[in-house]
């Protein structure tokens, strides 16, 4: 929370470098989907945001490449290289030309998270108004309204199959939505605190990972949504989680000031 970003190696978790540039708390950092795979090390591979309304874009060689500023806003959160701000809207940016290409309103409270569909034509957003929305990026219009959660929607994730969507909420539940049938098809209610992250396995969507402020990480089978495993080890709230591009590892970050890397054999 001191304005630093740190880059670590996997799986030995050794510090590679510290990225300096933000002047206040960093709220989120994300990799480009092709970082370390097909993306050049000198291209934009990471994005980070801070509470002073600054987004910085990084390559894997230099300190920082460029930044986007929103000084009039209180907070910016990043998801899949789009960005949303705590002004009830979300914005889509073209990073090559550094221009905003879409600014969309629709939520009645702050937009907290989002997820691109696998082909990039749809975007799902979750809001602190307790609702989710699915947007057609070609028209900017909302094509599905996700109603059912009793508190803020804090995490959304598209399945690789493109027609299922998971949402995690401060009401301690996870909902699975079917875009073809335009309805919620299943509700998971086992966490004892808010759900901070939902993640589908990236290749086939064969399992779902849920992280919670109850300090646990749970893995669910897909289809069926039966519990596979509960991973415990953090002594504080799990604030964030991610799955590696090859599906070999799950990383979690906690309020206990640690991050953990989980592998199938663990």
Automatic annotation (TrEMBL):
Biological-process GO terms, alphabetical: mRNA splicing, via spliceosome
Gene (name only): BpHYR1_054030
Pfam families: WD40
Protein name, UniProt field: U4 U6 small nuclear ribonucleo
Database matches in InterPro entries: WD40/YVTN_repeat-like_dom_sf, WD40_PAC1, WD40_repeat_CS, WD40_repeat_dom_sf, WD40_rpt
Keywords from the UniProt entry: Repeat, WD repeat
The organism's place on the tree of life at top rank: Eukaryota
Repeat among keywords: yes
PANTHER family (alphabetical): PRE-MRNA PROCESSING FACTOR 4, WD40 REPEAT PROTEIN
WD repeat positions: 19-68, 104-145, 146-187, 188-221, 231-266
GO molecular function, one term: U6 snRNA binding
Entries under SMART domains matching the protein: WD40 (SM00320)
One GO CC term, this protein: U4/U6 x U5 tri-snRNP complex
Gene3D superfamilies listed in its UniProt record: YVTN repeat-like/Quinoprotein amine dehydrogenase
